[in-house]
Prior knowledge:
CATH superfamily: Winged helix-like DNA-binding domain superfamily/Winged helix DNA-binding domain
GO molecular function: DNA binding
CATH architecture: Orthogonal Bundle
Organism: Chryseobacterium oleae
Number of strands: 2
InterPro entries: HTH_HxlR, WH-like_DNA-bd_sf, WH_DNA-bd_sf
Structural class: mainly alpha
Order of helices and strands: HHHHEEHH
Strand content: 5-15%
Radius of gyration: 17 Å
Protein name: Transcriptional regulator, HxlR family
Shape: globular
Keywords: DNA-binding, Transcription, Transcription regulation
Amino acid sequence: MGRDQTEELRALQDTLYFIGGKWRIPVINSICNGNRRFREIERSIPGITTRMLSKELKDMELNKLLKRNVYPETPVLIEYEPTEYCRTFGNIIAEMINWGRAHRRVIVEG
């Protein structure tokens, strides 16, 4: 049985759509590295604006990548945690980091 190139292209497009934004992977990486509160996440990603982080977190929650936990304290405490589904992306991020390091060495060492 041959490969279904149409299905493969659709799957690649879905993946690229998911990771295509400038901030999606850094946000996932930050949360998976233990940052749970909005300001912790924001501080761990240089250059991201409050508005962009808020948009990314909402979008990721809608896509079942994050769970938003609200604790009725004073002031209200909100924490984000990666879902198990989100964690399945961790190996892909690790491989992207490895590839990026290797690529940088190839380029720098000429």
